Each structure stands twice: as C-alpha cells, then as structure tokens.
C-alpha cells in the first residue's frame, strides 16, 4: 500500500490493520480455522484468475463471517 504512492489509501489500510488487530484479539486462533483458510484460498484463486467479481464476493463472504464471529464472541456466544 505504501508503495502505491497513494497516501489516502495507505492511511485507510493502516486504520484497517488497527481495527483488525482489535477484532483478532477476540478470536486469536481464527487464522488456523479451516473455514478461514478456505476463504483465503478462494480470494487468492479469484485474484489469480483475474476475476474481480469473484474476488469481491470471496472477500465479502470472509469479512461478513469474520464480523459475525467477532460480534458473537463479544456478545458472549461463539
């Protein structure tokens, strides 16, 4: 992001990383979860096939599942 030369994009990325760090603290083992690995593979596969719509869908599915897991954990569930 930094190498893009786009300062706004880089600041947004830094904010995203900070937010993710906070959310990950609620689910520290999420990266070892098989569903997470499948989602990451789907994102990479779409990107490698130059499929922006597929990548968008895969990222959305991953982000929404992550959100639901974090919210569930914060509410005392999951």
Rg = 14 Å
DSSP summary: helix tally? 3
Report strand %. Answer: under 5%
Give me the count of strands: 0
Low-confidence stretches: none
How can the largest sheet be summarized?
none
Query: Percentage of helical residues?
Result: over 70%
Query: Structural class of the secondary structure composition?
Result: mainly alpha
C-alpha termini separation: 33 Å
What is the overall silhouette? flat
Mean pLDDT equals 86
The domain count comes to 1
Query: Could you spell the SSE succession in H and E letters?
Result: HHH
Describe this structure in words.
The mean pLDDT is 86. The longest helix has 23 residues. It is flat, with a radius of gyration of 14 Å. By secondary structure, it is mainly α. It contains 3 helices and no strands.
């Amino acid at each position: 992001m930094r190498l893009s030369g786009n300062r706004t994009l880089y600041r947004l990325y830094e904010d995203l990383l900070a937010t993710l760090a906070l959310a990950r603290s609620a689910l520290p083992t999420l990266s070892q979860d098989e569903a997470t690995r499948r989602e990451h593979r789907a994102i990479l596969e779409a990107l490698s096939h130059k499929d922006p719509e597929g990548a968008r869908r895969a990222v959305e599915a991953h982000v929404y599942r992550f959100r639901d897991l974090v919210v569930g954990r914060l509410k005392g569930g999951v």
